[in-house]
Amino acid sequence: KQAEKAVHQKKEQSKTKCRKARRRHVNLVVEFNRRQGKNIWLETHIWHAKRFHMVKKWGYCLGDSPTQKCYRACYRAMTNHCLLQDLSYYCCLELTGKENELLKQLARICSTDTGLTFEELCCLSGRFEGSLNLYRADRYPEDMLGPVTFIWKPRDGSENRQLWIWMHPALKQDILRELKAIFQCSEPEEAYIPEPVTTSVQEEKQMDVVLSLGKKRKKEDKEGERAVPVKKIIGDGTRDPFQSYAWISQTTGIVISDKTMEILRYRLIGPLSHSVLTETLKAASLQTV
């Protein structure tokens, strides 16, 4: 009886890990993914969470107002220097297909009376970004969907073109439904998943030696196996990072893909924005095979 009593009196082992274990990269990614069950984080979420009051809107966790009095600093940056804003929560829809077919159907949801259209020469070449208001098909000036911005991929000599349309997340479902209707895209396209590259045993050993130089050894788990890296949430958090929402039309061949949170978008404001870009981005050398 005394032995049984001692067994029941033993304290249960604490399930909470120590702070050092919680702060490991793999455990941090698992915790961050768990906290993004309902609201997705932007790439700059950690930076904003330390300096802004966060709000939950449109399925995202966004910075609303700063915790410190930095309005004057932001104003000086906009007027004299450069200010960067993260607009990655804006939704992006990609249209792929023949240029004539794209322009023919897109003309039904916009009008020249409101300004630029998708057929504008400066925008059609892919050099400039355009903005316009979308309406339901053949319903102008009634049933307005909302304002969007768009940019064409420059021509590469083929008939197929790519068009990216950016919109506010509150307008995404209505605009996507209208685009699927005018292009008759109802069947989902099979997403391509790249196969893992196989390497020989010698190459793997050489890679392990190179990666281990100048780095600390990773701690192994209780079973003596390396910790498996956890995938980071991309998109809406319910699909694999290599898959995307895509619909194809069997009659026109147009493909509509949802690239939300797969293409980051930043806005630079200020007179030094161009100089900041030229100092940050370096042109790559073209290599012809």
Automatic annotation (TrEMBL):
Which intervals hold domain Pop1 N-terminal?
Answer: 4-97
Q: Domain of life, per the record? A: Eukaryota
Which Gene Ontology cellular-component terms appear in the entry? nucleolar ribonuclease P complex; ribonuclease MRP complex
Coiled-coil segments on the chain, per record: none
Please list the GO biological process terms of this entry. tRNA 5'-leader removal
Q: Matching PANTHER family, A to Z?
A: RIBONUCLEASES P/MRP PROTEIN SUBUNIT POP1, RIBONUCLEASES P_MRP PROTEIN SUBUNIT POP1
**Protein name in the entry:** POP1 protein
The organism of origin for this protein: Chionis minor (Black-faced sheathbill)
List the gene name. Answer: Pop1
